Amino acid sequence: MRATNTLTLGADRALYVGELPATGWHRHAAPVLLLGLSGRFAVHLAPGCVETCHSALIDMGVWHLFDPCGERVALVYLEPDSSEARSLRPWLGQQGGVVFDPAARTRTRGCTEARLRSFDLPTLLGQRFEAAAELDARVLRSLQHLRMARDGALPRDQVAQAAHLSASRFNHLFRQEMGVSFRSYRVWSQVRAAMAGLATQARLTDAALHGAFSDSAHFSRTFRQTFGMTPSSVLKPLREVTLV
Fold it and tell me: How far apart are CA 49 and CA 68, in angstroms?
């Protein structure tokens, strides 16, 4: 079968477009906007609790199962430190972490896909984002260390020491600023780096090394825990990986 899916990775956001299998139960360390491009899909928030919709905004840390129902879909992931994610946090918190059908409907799929490619979230969601407060400089530095690391997952103590904080104080500050634990975000950052590696190296084994995983089996286990799917079911159908 010809690969038709695409992945676009920006500095603080990512877009996956295509056809996907239903996932297992999982939760992310980043909020995600799910969009049905050809019809409705299903989101399970608990066994027996299912909602069908054209779009859904799901906060980080929310357990869910995503079933595209055979439709072509788009998934927009926002890094927790992005201005949009931080602006959305209060709204998502008030809604219990999930908002169904938040995206403004358009008459043509082409219009929606154009907005997706430019990451025009204010138009997609039909709302203006308020300016979010700047992240603590120590958390910003820790994010830079994580995203530049290529020789293994950075130990929390090492990152805390670089921020001139105790490990417990750093944990508290990181969660307060990012909305997610350092440990969870570190895993997310590794998986994201592995996917970025596919832009230049097509083999999943090479991608695993790019994400500083010990081997492809380690990468596969972590990917499945993160997205509820095997890496081959998500990454092998890719026609194109673009870094912007």
Answer: 16
Distance CA 35, CA 32 (A): 10
Q: Give per-residue pLDDT as tens, 32-63.
A: 999 999 999 999 998 889 999 999 999 999 99
What topology does CATH give the domain 137-228?
Arc Repressor Mutant, subunit A (1.10.10)
In Å, how far from its chain's centre is CA 94?
21
Triad 231, 233, 236: Cα angle to 5°? 80
Q: Does 5-125 carry CATH code 3.40.50.10860?
A: no
pLDDT for 107-146, tens place per residue? Answer: 777 788 888 989 999 889 888 788 788 899 999 988 888 8
Q: Which residues, in sequence order, are bridge partners of residue 241?
A: 7
How is residue 52 written in tokens? Answer: 């069908």
